[in-house]
Amino acid sequence: MHQKRTYISCISSNIYLHVINFPNERGLACDFNHRAIELPVNCGIGLPNFANFNLDTEIGSNCDSLTATNNFSTSNKFIIYPNPSEGHLKIENTKLNNANYYEIQIYDISGKLIERIKCLHIKINGIMI
Asked: What does the alpha-carbon distance between residue 91 and residue 94 come to, in Å, rounded to a whole number?
């Protein structure tokens, strides 16, 4: 499969572009060439100084930036504050019914359950955690 080159400019005004000849290869095999292309004029504005990598998902990679979310109903909205919190949150919901039992589950950004709170006799206008 044909690989396209990646061109990178320097962080300040200069007349050079760096080239990665084989961007899909790892380490030295990528064939990075420092100051590979000399530009006809000094170019300081208009070129990014970073490579734009179109990375796909790599299963098991810690660097995967793709996320997934579940679709939740928006008919029962909560107000949670302050954000960020130093440990105490206020959760408000004006549509809570008069049930005697609620369970609150708190997940981190990666979807890991970090807290499960079982609540009895919650006030209708909100709760303090």
From this structure: 10
